[in-house]
Amino acid sequence: MSNHITTVQRIETPLHEVDAAAIVVGLYSDGFPRSASAVEDASDGIISRLNEAGENPGKLLTKTPLWNVAGIRAPRVLIVGLGPRESVNRQVAFQAASVAGKSLAAKQHERIAFFLPEDWSGELHEAAVAGALASSQGQDLYRREKKLFPPKELLWAETDADAVRCGQIVGEAVSLTRRLVNEPPQEITPESFAERCVSVAVQHGLSIDVWDEHRLERERAGSLLAVSKGSDRPPRLVVLSHQGAGKGKQPLALVGKGVTFDSGGLSLKTSEGMKTMKCDMAGAATVLGAIQAIAALKLPINVVGLMGLVENMPGSRAMKLGDVLWSRAGKTIEVLNTDAEGRLVLADLLNVAVESGAEQIIDLATLTGACVVALGTDVAGLMSNNDPWCDKIEEASRTCGEPAWKLPMFAEYGEQIQSNVADIKNIGKGRWAGAITAAKFLEEFVDDVPWTHIDIAGPSFLDAPKPWCDAGATGCFVRTLIEVARSYDG
Predict the structure, then answer these.
(1) What fold is seen in the domain 177-486?
(2) Does 152 qualify as catalytic in the annotation?
């Protein structure tokens, strides 16, 4: 997987002397940061004149290009609106830099310089660096004529080197996740995804264990294996470990659904419903991106990343409605819909996480259309067996500007997955509360370990582009997982 790497360098060069194809300058709707004042002075008050004309270039996420400003070496200045000064947070920083990065990536540039406000914290600049990097790449991986061209170099002013370094690590992690999800399904299979995991492990000093189909048989992972039976692509289970806290400390487990293509199995999807099913491995891709960043940041925490990688296909050996599966945990599962396969993969993964001694667990999955019906395409669903643990994750998502909403996990929902044939069944009663009944199914496999399930079916993939992100994969919740790991105290 070839992938352009943009380097990021901190600079102290004055704005008017910077040698770059373009300069990005942040502007509040209610005030001028230092760099915006420099542009205002050099341009004979162009920003004030735009305001007087009703253009309002400081309005949140507005782009205002200026060309050949006298006294500024760079031929182009792009003013990006930041909204009110008091409302700026990491979401604003990430999206504002993303808007600028995506806009400028429409043409090939050797070097772009960012001059965002000098009063920003390191955390805000870090978020902006990540946004600028992630937004300049898109889904045009196999177009002969590209739509987006990542710059060779970003120059970053008004902050310290550590914020730039961390921002580049986070941005590259988000880009890794987006790239994996955007790849076509003939390229990302269970085997090739596992190979990408090996590459990340080697590059970042992670321990890795890849379970092939024979190991999965020995481990009695009957639930995961059943999903893979209709495909000629053998399954994989990947275990990645970061030992930042040393031996003896229980790990945080990050668990990701990795269905590299989901046809629905014998409960076959329509062609329309199948078009974006290459993205059904977004949970696993999110875990891989997050653990890469956790390792690169050298966070003092033990983390185990678990990814279950399968194809769900309707081959002659595919699981059938009415089959009873023996999960690794020993619970039997009646299959009443083969398109409810992600939870079958996660069931065995969660059992492995529990047996690894995980202190707390987060799983991520493009699990249910019901969650999209409930919350829309911009918000993920949170479901948990432990409210304090869920609250920490929700706080991290809010800090990063990745919206999530907690759904109830009342015991009554669990009654819907009781089976007359086996211990449980893989769907609830009809269409109602489908996201929650799926989570109640997963809860059966975590014992008493604090666990939170994040359903990212809505925000993980865009059908149409947004100003800060191309259509396709978004890389959502990589930053949230990193934030959870940074603040983790068990």
Answers:
(1) Aminopeptidase (3.40.630)
(2) no
